[in-house]
Amino acid sequence: FVDPQDPHYKIRWKFQGLEINVSEFQSAIVDALATMAPQVHGRPFDEAIGYSVLESVVLSIVRNSGQTISYAVVMRALVNLVAKVIYTRPSFTEMDFQIMHDDTEVVQAVVFRPKRSGIGHSVAGAATS
Questions:
Q1: Which residues partner with 115 through β-bridges?
Q2: Rounded Cα distance, 116 and 42, in Å
Q3: What does the DSSP 8-state code read for residue 107?
Q4: pLDDT of amino acid 106
Q5: What pLDDT shows up at residue 91?
Q6: How confident is the model at residue 124, as a pLDDT?
Q7: 113, 2, 119: which is closest to 60 by C-alpha?
Q8: For the chain, which ranges sit under pLDDT 50?
Q9: pLDDT score recorded for residue 122
Q10: Helix, strand, or coil here: 70?
Q11: Interacting residues of 54 by C-beta distance below 8 A, sequence separation 6+
Q12: Distance in angstroms (rounded) separating the CA atoms of residues 76 and 38
């Protein structure tokens, strides 16, 4: 879908992988938004991570090398993703999504269930630049 405030930005997504709890999905997005909020009027976006309340879902967002985007645009994309995609689905799975500027991928992100290993957890599989 197209960003309603700036038609140059588009969000692509694909649901795939393990089923995840919708509340955990949403809380990972809220955590990422809270992490990014202090940066809105600061430096350009680089990366952000959000954990669900129970740490059963992780959202990893990374700016692609050589690209520039503001925190405000990334945050708006997350809010739009929730409004346009999440509230329209009866169930949820892990997902990948990208923020495009015209035809160039600027940001890549992944929502996933971390692998549990004894003590704590690993975030293997997070989006990396």
A1: 122
A2: 35
A3: E
A4: 96
A5: 79
A6: 41
A7: 113
A8: 117-129
A9: 40
A10: coil
A11: 24
A12: 14
Here the contacts of 119-128 (C-beta below 8 Å, separation 24 or greater) are 121/55, 123/49, 123/58, 123/60, 126/49, 126/58, 126/60, 126/62, 127/60, 127/61, 127/62, 128/62
Question: Which token pair is 96?
Answer: 């990948």
4-8: which pairs have CB atoms within 8 A and are 24 or more residues apart?
A: 4/80, 5/76, 6/73, 8/101, 8/102
SS3 1: coil
Q: Give me the residue label for tokens 């971390």.
A: 114
Q: pTM of the prediction?
A: 0.82
Q: What are phi and psi of 102, to 5 degrees?
A: 55, -115
* Strand 9-20 with 47-51, pairing: unpaired
Distances (CA, A) of 56 to 26, 62, 70, 118: 12, 20, 28, 14
Query: How far does CA 89 lie from the centroid of its chain?
Result: 17
